[in-house]
Each structure stands twice: as structure tokens, then as C-alpha cells.
Amino acid sequence: MRILIVEDEPKTGDYLLQGMTEAGFITDLARNGPDGLHMALEGEYDLVILDVMLPGMNGWKVLETIRRSGHDMPVLFLTARDQVEDRVQGLELGADDYLIKPFAFSELLARIRALSRRSKAPVVEILKAGDLEMDLLRRRVHRAGQRIALTPKEFALLELLLRRQEEILPRSLIASLVWDMNFDSDTNVVEVAVRRLRAKVDDPYSPRLIRNVRGMGYVLEDPDANQ
Asked: Which GO CC terms are listed, alphabetically (predicted)?
């Protein structure tokens, strides 16, 4: 799935680009209205994430031009403009969804999946590693045929590890993508969450899938991939 982000605020744009890439999407970033419009019209994107207040051309005009050009890819407004009339205007111009800043990254991903299901764009529904299986649509996890109950944060953490399996994920990246927070070395929230997750998906089974790489982070390894 290819996503175009049109966002002029540097920190937000970089955060979205990293998050979408880590979630497994092919992602491009435009930092102003004219560039975003050009990329949307010339590229073959499955989804556009669009801010309203953009330099050169605002998001309303970008969306209006996209629709007048005959492009029907889903467009999600991600903006700080939270008035009812703003949301109405965006939807009437042809937006498919409207999310207010500040936002939770997990909610953004859920909305992207919902838009993907409504469009023709394919979306990964099942993630696997060995005998561990995650159903993203039904939000269910099984290992060795047994259902495992996870909290929303545990589910999000396991989803990230599964999507990036075989790669060592730094604690800072995990904290940013799962908790929408900057990593603080004095905070052990990641370690505690991983320990609780392993107690559910690893300790009762063999082999163990989630490994701590000292001084670097965590990795989920698929035993079948190493055979």
C-alpha cells in the first residue's frame, strides 16, 4: 500500500513518515501544497494523508483539485482545525475521513485500515511468525491454536514486532510508535510491556519468539524463517 503524506510541520511530517514506514507502508512526504498536489496527481497512491494549513496551497484546494482531476483515492484530513464547519467542508470537498490533531498513532492506523477495506487497495489482515498468528481485522491472537487475550497496548506492541520481525527495534522507536511518546531513559514502560507480552505469547510455548538484544532493543524472530 502506497501512502502520500502532505504535512508542512517538520516534526509531525517526520514522525508520520517514520511511523507509516515502520508499519509496513510505502510512504512519501510532501511539505507544501503544490508539491503534494503534484505528487498526488502523478503518483499512484492508495491513500493521501492531508493537512489543511499548508504553504503555497491549502489542503482544501489540494483536495478540490485532486477530485476535479478524476482521482478517487481515499483522502484523510489530519489537521488541528477542529470546528464542525471545517470537518463539514472537508467531507463535502470529497475527503473520506477527518482526524483532529493531536492524535493517537494507533487510531490513525485503524482509520487507514478502515479506508483500505472500503477501497480497492489490498491490506494485510493476518500476521504470522511460527505458530503465532495475529488477525488484524478481528483483533485476535492465537498461538499453537490457543487464543491469547491481550490489552490494546500489548496488541499494538505485538503488531509492531510482527510487522518488523527479524529486525532489532530500539526502545525509543517502540515508545514512539506504541505509546506516542518520546523515549525517556528513566522510564521502563517498554521493558515492563515486553515482559508482560512475553509472559503471554512466549513463556507457555516453545520456541520463544521475542528476544532482548542487550543495549539495542527487541526483536521477534520467526523460527520457520531460519530453517
From this structure: cytosol; protein-DNA complex
